[in-house]
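> call design_seq(struct)
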């Protein structure tokens, strides 16, 4: 066709606009094609988050940030897909078996794996499903792991090992090409992986809970239960325009600080030393008594952290804050593992409310302790899946997120 005929043809349709509903329908159909979402959990309680991510359609009024309500309301129109057909179960001898019931050839596969109490079984389920999808010729295999297990074992402890790095290598070997997770215990864990890692943040949802569910939150102070958590607490305090308090010291030495006899070489009085080699003596580490840096008298104390598992330290911090005059105490954390007797200890403590997200299933713990409240973060995980599949930028999901958060 001659070039001069193309221009009038183009100009005749340059002002045509399809109905908005048609654009939305086409966009959703395009997003659904070429990818599938599977759940690697064998327990029904752990698949609840996967169902919310895939089936939830609209959530009016829910947003990532109070200042971006219109944009966030659009995030509610997401996925609307069914979970992929698969069977994950344990055989009588304890082995994990995974069967993929549909073709995944050439598709982007997202595996949603929440971590219940049986951590090792959940890890094996994830590894075996990833390997099964890899051998079924899936194009990309992306793991959606809201709480990354073994993240506390990311540093060398005496003669231990960095188990988190081992797990990262196992996931890569099994076939994973990308990971979506949330609030890693240490951001440096991302360096253990040989593929991209998107470390999302739950703080916007927790901040929104504070603003909407604590009526007099302006009279609150953000508390770090240890100096190591001060950066996270500072980030919360700055965004809420609140004061900051830090708890320093311990009532007694923790188990990891006790002398367990594993000195190398052993400390012997008559040990032979190389002539002329004089090393300075290491002074024993002794933690001071508990002190609270900051004023909490007559105010609400909000303790923030990333993981709440063994709650003894949180209960002790609540007692100290109560003695210093705090009249209400909240605990905000991303991952509510709440192991062992945590629900009973929380119920009997001075803590008024524990707020966690649904990155880890904890319905049983909520039945045991009414003080435990849940914030849903499936919205941001669903949007992350959609953006990764469509090759869109993830920057929006990190808007207004500080470095220390």
């Amino acid at each position: 066709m001659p070039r001069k005929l193309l221009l009038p043809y183009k100009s005749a349709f340059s002002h045509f606009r399809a109905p908005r509903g048609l654009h939305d329908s086409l966009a959703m159909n395009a997003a659904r094609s070429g990818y599938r979402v599977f759940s690697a959990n064998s327990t029904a309680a752990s698949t609840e988050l996967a169902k919310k991510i895939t089936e939830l359609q609209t959530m009016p009024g829910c947003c990532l940030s109070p200042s971006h309500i219109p944009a966030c309301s659009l995030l509610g129109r997401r996925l609307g897909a069914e979970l992929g057909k698969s069977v994950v179960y344990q055989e009588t001898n304890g082995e994990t078996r995974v069967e993929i019931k549909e073709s995944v050839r050439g598709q982007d596969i997202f595996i949603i794996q929440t971590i219940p109490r049986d951590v090792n079984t959940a890890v094996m389920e994830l590894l075996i499903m990833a390997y099964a999808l890899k051998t079924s010729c899936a194009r990309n295999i992306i793991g959606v792991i809201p709480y990354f297990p073994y993240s506390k074992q990311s540093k060398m402890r005496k003669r231990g090992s960095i188990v988190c790095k081992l797990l990262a290598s196992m996931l890569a070997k099994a076939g994973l090409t990308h990971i979506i997770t949330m609030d890693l215990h240490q951001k440096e864990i991302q360096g253990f992986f040989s593929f991209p890692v998107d470390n999302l943040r739950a703080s916007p949802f927790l901040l929104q809970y504070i603003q909407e569910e604590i009526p007099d939150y302006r009279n609150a102070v953000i508390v770090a239960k240890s100096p190591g958590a001060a950066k996270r607490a500072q980030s919360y305090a700055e965004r809420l325009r609140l004061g900051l308090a830090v708890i320093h010291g311990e009532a007694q030495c923790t188990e990891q600080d006790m002398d367990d006899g594993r000195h190398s070489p052993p400390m012997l009085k008559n040990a032979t030393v190389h002539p002329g080699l004089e090393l300075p003596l290491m002074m024993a580490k002794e933690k001071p008594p508990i002190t609270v840096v900051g004023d909490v008298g007559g105010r609400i104390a909000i303790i923030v952290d990333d993981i709440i598992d063994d709650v003894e330290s949180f209960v002790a911090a609540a007692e100290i804050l109560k003695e210093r005059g705090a009249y209400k105490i909240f605990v905000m954390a991303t991952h509510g593992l709440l192991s062992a007797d945590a629900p009973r200890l929380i119920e009997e403590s001075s803590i008024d409310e524990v707020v966690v997200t649904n990155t880890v299933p904890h319905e049983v713990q909520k039945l045991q302790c009414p003080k435990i409240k849940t914030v849903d973060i499936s919205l941001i995980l669903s949007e992350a899946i959609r953006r990764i599949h469509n090759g869109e930028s993830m920057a929006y999901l990190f808007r207004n997120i500080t470095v220390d958060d």
